[in-house]
Amino acid sequence: MTKRPWSWVFLFAALLLTITAFWQARHQWTVLSRWTSVTGTLLRRDVPRNHDADGSLYFQMKAAFRYPVDGKERESSSMSYFGSTDFGWIAPRVLAYNLGSQYPIHYDPASPEVFEFGAGYNTLYFRTSLRYLWASAVCVLLGLLLRRLSQAPRRCVQCRRTVRSFFRYCPDCGESISPA
Ligand SMILES: [Zn+2]
């Protein structure tokens, strides 16, 4: 019986994780829905050594693009939305960008020098949100599992013997068991 409150803890955690996933994605949705989408040419790419808030190394790709804004060409640079403390993780993702090639970018119409590359409905751009959704799914499964384990066993109405959920007749007294 003590498992039942725990199942609610897991289901509540799943709800919080789902809300967090959507909260985390709000910037991405703003970029994809409000910012102007154009094609830019990659001029330079680099992986500067930055430190995050706790002082450990955090790698992001820095890229300079040339792209048209209101008919005029503009040059600006931006850090990738993706990043990692693991250089081995980020290196192949940076190398996938070829100098001189064209890529879709999104710039902020209110300040066109602010832009993002790699924005789109892809797992890399929504990586943080997808992690929260994944954790939420695990919590839902654990919560439902605990709920199932905490259910009182079914009993035959006639002889009170515990019966399995798939039994149609009580093996002891033959009483028919109504489906749950
Ligand atoms: Zn029975």
Structural notes for this entry:
The structure is a single chain. The chain is of the alpha+beta class and 180 residues long. The chain has a domain at 26-125: OB fold (Dihydrolipoamide Acetyltransferase, E2P) (Beta Barrel), CATH 2.40.50. Helix content is 36%, strand content 32%. It is built from four helices and eight strands; from the N terminus they run ααββββαββαββ. It has helices spanning 3-24, 26-34, 87-95, 127-150, and strands at 36-46, 49-51, 57-69, 72-84, 102-108, 111-117, 154-155, 162-163. The strands form two sheets. Strands 1, 2, 3, 4, 5 and 6 form a six-stranded antiparallel sheet that branches. A two-stranded antiparallel sheet has the order 7-8. Strand 2 and strand 3 form a beta hairpin. Helix 1 (3-24) packs antiparallel against helix 4 (127-150). The longest helix is centred in the C-terminal third of the chain and has 24 residues, at 127-150. The model has no long low-confidence stretch (mean pLDDT 91). The structure holds zinc ion.
Task: Present the secondary structure layout.
Blueprint: H1 3-24, H2 26-34, E1 36-46, E2 49-51, E3 57-69, E4 72-84, H3 87-95, E5 102-108, E6 111-117, H4 127-150, E7 154-155, E8 162-163
The structure holds zinc ion.
